[in-house]
């Protein structure tokens, strides 16, 4: 219970830090709105988890719907909102639609919502990781943000935080799924790493959009 509350507290902090940006001039309005929705979703979900876990209420269906599927789709939408290539935007839209269709088929014919959809989450994580890699490659090969100070660009840091979180979770869930005899201590270490990276990701979403205010030349979205 204490761990859940402590973890939820960090998400709430990221959410609260994000609120003042609605009242400030911000060149990343759409991206900020999407990250705010993600933070609100994460806080609501973990608050629900804090209530249900001590009472031994099965909450896996809620986590499947809102964490595995909805949060994945929101993060893909975030990337689609700032990718410059029309082809990349279209691919993300198609991937999102296919992921949603896969989720419906998986739920109806393979595994119900009361069992965690590990394969779906691994698939979603893999798509998000590919988006992060495309973003990093584009910075160096396509000269994205070449006229800006990259360390002050919120999209760079948010993508970095997302990449760290989803690579750790992809490793965690893939290990549990495919290596059944994995050492328990290693699983616990991977679980701690996953939770730590999620804190960095949510706090990063709450803080990153303040970075442009550190320079007089605010980057364009």
UniProtKB/TrEMBL annotation:
Q: Which residues cross the membrane?
A: 6-24, 33-51, 63-83, 90-109, 121-142, 154-179, 199-215
Question: What top-level branch of life does the organism fall under?
Answer: Bacteria
Q: Which UniProt keywords apply?
A: Membrane, Transmembrane, Transmembrane helix
Q: What is this protein's record name?
A: Histidine kinase N-terminal 7TM region domain-containing protein
Q: Which source organism?
A: Belliella buryatensis
């Amino acid at each position: 219970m204490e761990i859940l509350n402590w973890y939820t507290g960090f998400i709430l902090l990221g959410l609260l830090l994000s609120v003042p940006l609605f009242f400030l001039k911000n060149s990343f309005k759409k991206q900020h709105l999407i990250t705010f929705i993600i933070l609100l979703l994460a806080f609501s979900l973990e608050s629900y988890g804090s209530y249900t876990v001590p009472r031994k209420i099965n909450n896996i269906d809620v986590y499947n719907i809102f964490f595995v599927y909805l949060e994945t789709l929101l993060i893909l939408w975030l990337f689609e909102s700032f990718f410059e290539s029309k082809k990349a935007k279209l691919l993300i839209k198609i991937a999102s639609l296919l992921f949603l269709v896969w989720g419906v088929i998986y739920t109806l014919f393979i595994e119900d919502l009361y069992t965690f959809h590990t394969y779906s989450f691994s698939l979603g994580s893999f798509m998000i990781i590919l988006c992060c890699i495309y973003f990093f490659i584009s910075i160096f090969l396509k000269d994205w943000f070449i006229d800006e100070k990259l360390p002050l660009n919120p999209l760079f840091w948010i993508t970095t935080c997302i990449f760290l979180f989803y690579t750790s979770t992809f490793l965690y869930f893939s290990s549990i799924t495919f290596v059944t005899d994995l050492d328990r201590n290693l699983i616990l270490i991977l679980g701690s790493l996953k939770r730590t990276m999620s804190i960095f990701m949510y706090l990063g979403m709450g803080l990153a959009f303040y970075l442009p205010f550190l320079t007089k030349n605010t980057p364009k979205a």
